[in-house]
Amino acid sequence: VVARSNQTALQAKDVVEDSVRPRLLQYAIDYDKNTLTLIFSETIEYRSIDCTQITVRANVSEADAVIMSNCTIMEYSLNQLVLAMHEQDIEKIKRRHTSSTDLGDTSVSISSLFCTDRQGLWLVPVVDQIADHVEKDLSPPELEFFDFDLSSAILTLRFNDVVRAASLTSTAITLLRGKLSNMSHTLRIRSPSL
Length: 194
Fold this sequence. Notes:
There is one protein chain. The chain contains 1 helix and 15 strands. The protein is mostly beta strands. Strands 6-7-2-1-11 form a 5-stranded mixed beta sheet. The chain has a 4-stranded antiparallel beta sheet with strand order 5-4-8-10. A two-stranded antiparallel ribbon has the order 3-9. It is elongated and about 90 Å long.
């Protein structure tokens, strides 16, 4: 208690320390922005955050889960965190056939070692909690790079996002001799010989 002029400060008769561990109240995943937003029951100590303690599952029954390898704190405000998920982790999640893009299909588990509150109390562990909000990836993939090896007749395409190989249509790819050329070649996929 702070003393005011011409008055004396009152001393507390008893001090009760914080003994309540922080809890995850809700979370949201945005697959378009690759972010994970976490809301806790109290202020957490951002310097204690260890993203490798988060596991994302495409659905609760899926045994093959993605343990986050890294993340970046984008926003921090008392009891809310916005984490940028590592590109490598997002790619692993999106490669799944049962891709976690729907509300009922996404769950996280978070170890108590993920973070502490300001008193140093560890988080109450989270086991397969379903997301409160999921933002689907609505951005189409963009071609970043291609290489055509004439000796092996292999065309390599690299996109900025995960693409399903089965969805590629080879006849939709046309190679031009130059930027303004009218000479072109449309690709056809040959069946591999067995």
